[in-house]
């Protein structure tokens, strides 16, 4: 009888291990307010297990037209599981303090359909935990439109400076590597 009990315990313990492997990575723990919405984005529920590009954005930056390229990227790869997440920030003093204006730039001017948060801190001790973890795995944003490519396990594959456009070959190669990580 005790051998049967040990066998059952051993089998049950193997069922528990996969559940632990699916835990939310540190990078995605937390919630943020969705831009111009009452909804909150649970980062783990929305992005865990998926390849992800995170970008800190600003409405009045010389790099703001990159929204168009980011939307093209999202449309091109979303059927393959890619998620894009935009995080407006005024850390570099180029974001409106009015979320309606920020939303207009994103949704109306550039046709963004990927998730966007309300304005957040992305640098320093008050940074959003997501960006603290991005900085720990790579580096903190040095300017608006810094891009982070994250694999399906929640690890930063690569980070790119503001000047890297969404159609840059090295950036696209990192995105494709992230997409391959979910297989």
TrEMBL record:
InterPro entries for this protein: Glutathione_peroxidase (IPR000889), GPX_AS (IPR029759), Thioredoxin-like_sf (IPR036249), Thioredoxin_domain (IPR013766)
CDD domains linked: GSH_Peroxidase
Residues the record marks as active site: 61
Pfam families hit by this protein: GSHPx
PROSITE patterns listed in its UniProt record: GLUTATHIONE_PEROXID_1, GLUTATHIONE_PEROXID_3, THIOREDOXIN_2
The family this protein is said to belong to: Belongs to the glutathione peroxidase family.
The protein's name: Glutathione peroxidase
């Amino acid at each position: 009888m005790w051998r049967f009990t040990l066998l059952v315990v051993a089998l049950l313990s193997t069922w528990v291990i996969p559940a632990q492997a699916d835990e939310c990575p540190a990078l995605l723990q937390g919630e943020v307010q969705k831009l111009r919405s009452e909804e909150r984005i649970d980062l783990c529920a929305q992005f865990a297990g998926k390849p992800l590009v995170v970008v800190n954005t600003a409405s009045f930056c010389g790099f703001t037209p990159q929204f168009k390229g980011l939307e093209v990227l999202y449309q091109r790869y979303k059927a393959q599981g890619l998620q894009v997440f935009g995080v407006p920030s005024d850390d570099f003093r180029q974001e409106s303090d009015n979320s309606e204006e920020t939303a207009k730039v994103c949704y109306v001017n550039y046709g963004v359909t990927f998730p966007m948060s309300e304005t957040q801190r992305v640098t320093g001790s008050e940074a959003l935990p997501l960006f603290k973890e991005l900085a720990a795995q790579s580096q903190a944003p040095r300017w608006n439109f810094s891009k982070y490519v994250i694999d399906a396990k929640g690890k930063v594959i690569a980070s790119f400076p503001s000047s890297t456009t969404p159609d840059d070959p090295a950036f696209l190669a990192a995105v494709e590597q992230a997409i391959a990580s979910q297989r």
